[in-house]
Amino acid sequence: MLSGARDAGAAMSVLYAVPRLVFTQVVAGHWAAASSSASEALTLSISSGQRPMAATPLAWLTVLAALRGSPEFDALLADAEDVAPGQPPGIMTNPAHDLIRCAKGSRAAQRGDVHAAFHHFGRPTVPAIARTAALDRIESAVRVDDRAQAAAWVGQLASFADGTGWPWALAAVEHGRALIAEPTRAPEHFGPALAHHTRGRRPYDRARTHLAHGELLRRSQRRIDARTHLRGALEIFEDLHVAPLITRASQELRASGETARRRDPSTAVDLTPMERQVAQSVSTGMSTRRLPRSAGSPPAPLRSTSGTASPRRASRHAASSHSSTSRSAISSATARTSDTVVRCGMGIPWHGR
Predict the structure, then answer these.
(1) What's the angle, vertex CA 12, arms to CA 7 and CA 17, rounded to 5?
(2) CB neighbours (10 Å) of residue 350?
(3) pLDDT tens across the length of the chain (353 residues)
(4) How many whole angstroms from its chain centre is CA 235?
(5) Sequence-ordered alpha helix ranges (H) in the chain
(6) Alpha-carbon dihedral of residues 320, 322, 327, 328, nearest 10 degrees?
(7) What share of the chain is helix, strand, coil (3-state, %, to 5)?
(8) Integer Cα distance of 92 and 19 in angstroms
(9) Could you give the 3-state DSSP secondary structure of residue 321?
């Protein structure tokens, strides 16, 4: 659908389809691709005179900036909140507002403002977004000592997970149960959670479970066991450039008696010539209006030299030079993934997942 809309020049169809694509890219850990897709939609909304349609892509860019602890967060949030109220009523209105709430919740949690985090994470109204933020919601409730609410959210997610059998949901339920369980019983839930994660294909969520399990083991004086989980978490956080959790995992690893090693630069992503050109242009301050619109054909998904998909380093690409009106456009970096959206059953209305 997305490829056809692009080929036909159907701007509105692209603007409605790309945010759904971004959703699948974010949960699958393809954050560089998600940033590229959101930037494409943002640029298109402005160039086509559909500024209100910029709300959802701006909200996604704000979420990514929040998760990564990016200094661009405040500017992106201001832009998103400026545009969102002007968005006409429709299927993208509530998702835009919910994403902004989740972004605020993530930033509040990073700053240690647990009550603000709990407030923001408790407000999403779109089921798909609320479920995607389930761990944040449950963790925020635990941190303000509202275990009744945490248990209620675990129960809601459990009903969904049991009904669908989706691994990522089953993993989130077990992780949530570990958070509300007594420390001595928590490992009984972390183990099954990680087992589900092996089939869930949500690396960020898997890393968070590894981190939580590792922290618990380290506090229980099981330092050697903790290191395996902390190393696994750190590697994924580094791939995704999640600065706040890189710091947290590194500190936990040092507390376990092991120094976190710097990743081998040889595992960095090899950018295509087009991506490198855009990144270099943006880094020198070139206006986004002067950036090339396309590379003739969609580049292949970013891959590390080891052959595995990774958004590492390429994340300095389209998300590196935001202004109040647009962000750098590295469009069509993921055009071929639209077919995957359909096969995975995720290219459907927001309420469906």
Answers:
(1) 75
(2) 17
(3) 666 666 566 667 878 888 889 999 999 999 999 999 999 999 999 898 888 889 999 999 999 999 999 999 999 999 999 988 866 656 788 999 999 999 999 999 999 999 999 999 999 999 999 999 999 999 999 999 999 999 999 999 999 999 999 999 999 999 999 999 999 999 999 999 999 999 999 999 999 999 999 999 999 999 999 999 999 999 999 999 999 999 999 999 999 998 766 555 444 444 444 445 555 554 545 544 444 444 333 444 434 434 444 433 433 343 344 433 333 333 333 333 333 332 333 333 343 34
(4) 16
(5) 2-8, 11-27, 31-47, 55-68, 73-83, 93-110, 114-121, 127-132, 134-143, 147-164, 167-180, 187-200, 203-219, 223-240, 243-255, 273-283, 338-343
(6) -40
(7) 70, 0, 30
(8) 9
(9) coil
Residue 173 three-state SS: helix
Burial 190-205 (b: 16+ CB within 10 A, else e): bebbbebbeebebbbb
Residue corresponding to tokens 């096969």: 343
User: Dihedral (C-alpha) 176, 180, 184, 189: value to the nearest 10 degrees?
Assistant: -20
CB atoms within 10 A of CB 223: 17
Token digits of residue 75: 């500017």
Question: pTM of the predicted model, to two decimals?
Answer: 0.73
Alpha-carbon distance of 189 to 89, in angstroms, equals 42
Residue 304 has φ and ψ, to the nearest 5°, of -80, 170
Residue 92 has which token pair? 């993208």
What are the Cα distances from residue 208, in Å, to 135, 197, 221, 232?
A: 9, 11, 20, 10
The whole-angstrom separation of Cα 18 and Cα 4 is 12
Q: Which two tokens stand for residue 279?
A: 């990144």
First to last CA, the chain: 19
Residue appearing with tokens 């330092």: 223
The Cβ-side half-sphere exposure at 13, using a 13 Å CA radius, reads 10
Give the C-alpha separation, 308 to 276, whole Å: 20
DSSP state of 261: P
